[in-house]
Amino acid sequence: MLGEVLGVERRRRWSDDEKLEIVLAAGADGATVTQVAQRYEVTRSQIYGRRRDLKQKGLWSPGHGAYFLPVDFPESATPAPTPTRSVPVELRLANGRCLRFDSGMDGEALTRLIRAVEAV
Prior knowledge:
- The chain is mainly alpha-helical.
- It has 4 helices and 2 strands; from the N terminus they run H-H-H-E-E-H.
- It has a two-stranded antiparallel sheet.
- Helix 1 crosses helix 3.
């Protein structure tokens, strides 16, 4: 006899909410996909597959959980000094897209770019 069956494998059913909870746990508080997989007794490939499936259903995006709050500046506020050195900036949009641009980019041009990307 080559092998012995020691038990019956169980097949669990997960709701979309449970799957989303698991997918969001990866990265939360620095948790890795491996750690989350061990905690929920699933494989890493299941987590990646669930990310893909939830994204296709429109239930998850990489920026899920990010909140953007409006900021009002008084008109009398003095403008911030122009940085002497430009730095790369990465901006994640609500639609899951990511824009990378230089900090020296003109504000009006950046606004037009964001509107154009969000309209697509």
